[in-house]
């Protein structure tokens, strides 16, 4: 893995998106991602929708069970969904980010370590049904339609951080 940028913390506004969300076993997650990307691109092309980076968002992570995942794209404005494609938002807030090329597992570990070293926490609820993230996604800065070699994809990993404790009323 090569870290291209970060890790760092950024503050982001809400961003409109459109995506397809499914529940899949962990082992099938990446095959589903690739299949859904093709379906989503076709849907967008058929409707002439301009879009930004493709993302892969993990809503609920349960490595031993099922993953609730979404393949989506950032859009300039809200879109009308139909069929399996639904409109949505990438939520506003503080995000820990890291941009890398190749091997996401190492990037994930590097970002988690860095967040812990900084004394920050993720917006995540841990429970027996799987960890539920406020927003955790990987944005593909390299267009997968033009670069088929996944080991060359430039990817931004972004995980929403917990809100900072309020300091209202303190000296």
From TrEMBL:
Stretches assigned to the GyrI-like small molecule binding domain: 12-161
Pfam families, alphabetized: GyrI-like
Gene3D superfamilies the record matches: Regulatory factor, effector binding domain
Protein name (database record): GyrI-like small molecule binding domain-containing protein
């Amino acid at each position: 893995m090569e870290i291209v940028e970060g890790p760092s913390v950024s503050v982001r506004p809400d961003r409109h998106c459109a995506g397809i969300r499914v529940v899949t076993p962990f082992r099938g997650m990446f095959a589903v991602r690739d299949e859904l990307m093709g379906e989503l691109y076709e849907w967008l092309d058929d409707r002439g929708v301009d879009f930004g980076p493709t993302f892969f968002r993990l809503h609920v992570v349960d490595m031993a069970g099922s993953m609730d995942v979404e393949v989506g794209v950032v859009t300039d404005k809200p879109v009308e969904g139909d069929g399996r494609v639904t409109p949505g938002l990438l939520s506003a807030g503080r995000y820990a980010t890291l941009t890398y090329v190749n091997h996401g597992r190492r990037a994930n570990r590097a970002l988690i370590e860095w967040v812990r070293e900084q004394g920050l926490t993720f917006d995540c609820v841990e429970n027996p049904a799987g960890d539920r993230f406020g927003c955790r996604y990987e944005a593909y800065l390299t267009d997968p339609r033009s670069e088929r070699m996944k080991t060359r994809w430039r990817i931004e990993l972004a995980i929403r951080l917990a809100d900072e404790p309020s300091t209202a009323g303190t000296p």
